[in-house]
């Protein structure tokens, strides 16, 4: 069930909210919590009920493992807690590996070792990459003694709550268990509904009006490259940049819709995006892009490998391994691994540059150059992320440096205007959390964060602040209503979110 489908927008979401509030009012918090778990299972099973036993089975397995781990770690020497943790993580990774990487390994073996094993064509269960990482973090933190007391029902809500179940954010248990126990949890609240719907419809607008309208440009170019055609200079740049913007608005839109839908029920999810194309370095980019994945890779992979505790060489190696595996997490293809490896190399260069003894330059023009260079590097890497295979990626890269035989003044002007429009949005327009900062729109963003994170266009103390900061008013209601109307008018074609394939 897609967030941008009529069945979800006009059926599942409003009906689930209505029933939740009624159950909460007449039967209490625990009953509404249980109802949301059942509604989430229905939401997941709508896609393919065959995989519901996998979702439920892994949830039960990890809950029981965590209980055993927390019991064992209290014994002298930690008992068998470490062994149980390793076993639990292995089972989670094995389930992910079987469904996601079996054909990749078979295909690689056939190509490299000249074997002839048949491909299994296993259907990838929806969201397995996301909920596997969520459960791994839960088990590791149980071993560390960092999981607060919770019931099985609260745990099921944590791993199954439908807004974040399919494509994130990759929610941490601390962010959920602290909210499920609130006395007013899941009760009807007009402000939560107003804030949630605003964030949700911003995300819907990003997806169906922005991402879906720029998608045909990227699709045409990358499909042509996949078909073995040569790609011209302007087509290559248009395709690369179009996908760069499409991916951002598509996944950022999904994350906004997830945060907004959860807020309707009084649950605050963590941010996943914070204007990543405004980053002034690759390190800064990964603090802003897919923030919950970056957090997982840092806390449960990079640090586990040794982090920066064993010298510069080992630190750089750990960075490279972390990013390469993070790339492979996105999909069973060498293009994804190379995309991750490219970001690993860029992070190494970034850290090496920062380690040089030099006087830092901090001016508007130096930040502008850094922002433009970071954006270009990220866009170039997206070619690997999007391309069907290495040959298609090579065709795009070749086109980027091909002499522009199709050069015309009219096309140059059109491309510059097109690029200026999209760059104006990602560089200068306030993002969702900045606009709603006064009402703490996400778990990890509030007014103090907004004050420490000034907009590129200063608004404090100006009349423009009334438009740039969200507050309950007729003016804001009209703006959100117009945005929602534009989104509904664009629902004639329903497209999947790009991260559904991961």
TrEMBL record:
Localization terms from the record: Cell membrane
Main location: membrane
Membrane topology designation: Multi-pass membrane protein
Pfam short name (any one): MBOAT
Keyword annotations from UniProtKB, A to Z: Acyltransferase, Alginate biosynthesis, Cell membrane, Membrane, Transferase, Transmembrane, Transmembrane helix
Classification via InterPro entries: Ac/AlaTfrase_AlgI/DltB, AlgI, MB_O-acyltransferase, MBOAT_fam
Recorded metabolic or biological pathway in which this protein acts: Glycan biosynthesis; alginate biosynthesis
Keyword Chaperone set for record: no
Similarity field: Belongs to the membrane-bound acyltransferase family.
Name listed for the protein in its UniProt record: Probable alginate O-acetylase AlgI
Biological source species: Parvibaculum lavamentivorans (strain DS-1 / DSM 13023 / NCIMB 13966)
């Amino acid at each position: 069930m897609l967030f941008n489908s009529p069945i979800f927008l006009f059926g599942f979401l409003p009906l689930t909210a209505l029933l939740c509030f009624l159950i909460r009012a007449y039967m209490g918090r625990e009953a509404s919590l249980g109802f949301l778990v059942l509604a989430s299972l229905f939401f997941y099973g709508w896609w393919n009920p065959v995989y519901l036993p996998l979702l439920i089975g892994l949830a039960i397995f990890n809950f029981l493992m965590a209980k055993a781990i927390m019991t064992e770690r209290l014994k002298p020497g930690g008992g068998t807690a470490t062994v149980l943790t390793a076993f639990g993580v292995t089972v989670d990774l094995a389930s992910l590996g079987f469904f996601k990487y079996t054909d990749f390994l078979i295909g690689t073996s056939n190509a490299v070792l000249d074997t002839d094993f048949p491909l299994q064509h296993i259907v990838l269960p929806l969201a397995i990459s996301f909920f596997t990482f969520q459960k791994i973090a839960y088990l590791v933190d149980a071993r560390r003694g960092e999981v607060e007391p919770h019931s099985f029902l609260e745990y099921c809500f944590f791993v199954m709550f439908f807004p974040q179940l399919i494509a994130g954010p990759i929610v941490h248990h601390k962010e959920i268990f602290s909210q499920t126990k609130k006395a007013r949890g899941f009760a009807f609240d007009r402000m939560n509904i107003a804030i949630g719907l605003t964030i949700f419809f911003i995300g819907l607008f990003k997806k169906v009006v922005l991402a879906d309208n720029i998608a045909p440009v990227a699709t045409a170019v990358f499909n042509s490259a996949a078909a073995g055609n040569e790609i011209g200079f302007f087509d290559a740049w248009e395709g690369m940049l179009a996908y760069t913007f499409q991916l951002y608005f598509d996944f950022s839109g999904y994350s906004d819709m997830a945060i907004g839908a959860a807020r309707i029920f009084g649950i605050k999810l963590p941010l996943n995006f914070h204007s990543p194309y405004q980053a002034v370095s690759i390190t800064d980019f990964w603090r802003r892009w897919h923030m919950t994945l970056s957090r997982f890779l840092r806390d449960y992979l990079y640090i586990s490998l040794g982090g920066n505790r064993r010298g510069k060489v080992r630190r750089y190696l750990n960075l490279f391994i972390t990013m390469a595996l993070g790339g492979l997490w996105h999909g069973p293809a060498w293009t994804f691994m190379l995309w991750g490896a490219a970001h690993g190399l860029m992070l190494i260069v970034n850290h090496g540059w920062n380690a040089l003894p030099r006087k830092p330059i901090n001016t508007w023009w130096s930040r502008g150059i850094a922002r433009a260079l970071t954006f270009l590097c990220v866009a170039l890497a997206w070619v690997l992320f999007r391309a069907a295979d290495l040959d298609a990626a090579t065709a795009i890269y070749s086109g980027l440096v091909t002499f522009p035989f199709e050069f015309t003044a009219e096309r140059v002007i059109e491309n510059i205007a097109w690029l200026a429009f999209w760059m104006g949005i990602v560089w200068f327009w306030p993002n969702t959390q900045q606009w709603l900062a006064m009402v703490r729109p996400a778990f990890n963003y509030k007014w103090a964060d907004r004050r420490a994170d000034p907009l590129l266009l200063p608004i404090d103390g100006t009349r423009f602040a009334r438009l740039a900061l969200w507050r309950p008013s007729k003016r804001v209601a009209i703006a959100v209503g117009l945005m929602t109307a534009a989104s509904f008018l664009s629902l004639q074609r329903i497209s999947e979110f790009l991260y559904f394939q991961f």
